[in-house]
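Quick one before lunch.
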Amino acid sequence: MKTRIEPFKIKSVEEIPMTTVEQREQFLKEAFYNPFYLKSEQITIDLLTDSGTTAMSAKQWGVLMDGDEAYAGSRSYYRFENAVKKITGFKHIIPTHQGRAAERILFGVMCKAGQTIPNNTHFDTTRGNIEYSGANALDLPTAIGTRPDLEADFKGNIDLDKLREAIVEIGPENIPLGMITVTNNSGGGQPVSMENIRETKKILAEYGIPFFIDCCRFAENAYFIKLREKGYENKSIMEIANEMFSYADGCTMSAKKDGLSNTGGFIALNDDSIAEKCRTLLIVTEGFPTYGGLARRDLEALAQGFEEVMDVNYLKYRIEQVQYLGELLDKDGVPFLRPTGGHAVYIDAKAFAPNIAPQYFPGQAIANELYRVSGVRGVEIGSVMFGKEDENGNHIAPPMELVRLAIPRRVYTKSHIEYVAEACVEAYKNRNELKPLKITWQPQFLRHFTAKFEYIK
Ligand code: F0G
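Model of the F0G complex:
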């Protein structure tokens, strides 16, 4: 059979709000032209994030009831620990309430002010936590990884030559750890090859630098390796994941993604002394090490989620659903980052709205227009999220201006995806009427979440 179908049927449904263009124009105004301020009851299809928005399975809802809410030594923790160990092979599994808590604790223990942490591309909270600790977050994507128009199999790779150069220039003693993010979320949800992970480990080990994986979407990355990397076509997702983690000294995870759950995260690592320091900080800020700020029932849902995410039929559906949205956009010439990645389609805002310069936030203008025409919410990943001003107030733009349409796991059907594609085409037709924006207020860190905007008349 050629028809691609969702490999599940629907047992419980949730109504989605329908609104008019006039209502949405008013909602946008009230939201300071920042979709983060929109209320979910104003949104028809929410592609703001794939994080914590997963539909859980009947089995996950079932095990929630079996959660053991003991403060210490909960059996739900041991089930969670087993599931994570089976995939990652690490010795210490430290739960946290979400990914950024794992980051804050790990960087709090491992980094000092003035040090540098290289990565293929840091996610915004990773960068935020590093900068908050006074250290520097260094992105080292490959040249092709920052070209939305060029196709390649592993555009998420870290640039190995630049990594070595950076270590020599900065000095290994100033690099407390090196990271790779799989898949590379801020770089378009693009996968990282096994070869790149292996070589990164070799280079870091040569200089005695520990290697951590930011592994929120490790299963999607493993599926891409199976599809695209020679020698892995007959390996199981578990075998590929095991090999990926075997090269690392530890990882941080937001389990709100490939944990197929609505909350959760963890740090996993081998080093006893770092683990002990992390657990101490965990107790101070998150909770006892057998729950880490989570309800124990959530650990049950995660343990079950980690089993389900390794299913190759699920991963095939997942990646093909994202690909299908790309195919539909392609038919009408809407420019997007190629090829489509693991969890999202990223509209190429520079090509979509070339008349708006990066300092006037083309991605934000597109995200607003998309919402205005359809009630679909996406998120800007460009100058709002990663742009900076130099000391003279001149804008420093990131390499790409994107609008991410992140697809929640197991939530939307094929016809929802078709609606999203139609919405993008509609917004694209209006591209010459898009207006530049300016920021009227912003916080010190992670400004995209709460910044306020106005259109420049
Ligand atoms: N690392 C990556 C690669 C992420 O994508 C995220 C979250 C985090 C770390 C932080 O995890 O949210 O559980 O604290 N990404 C979400 C997103 C928010 O929309 O891409 P968290």
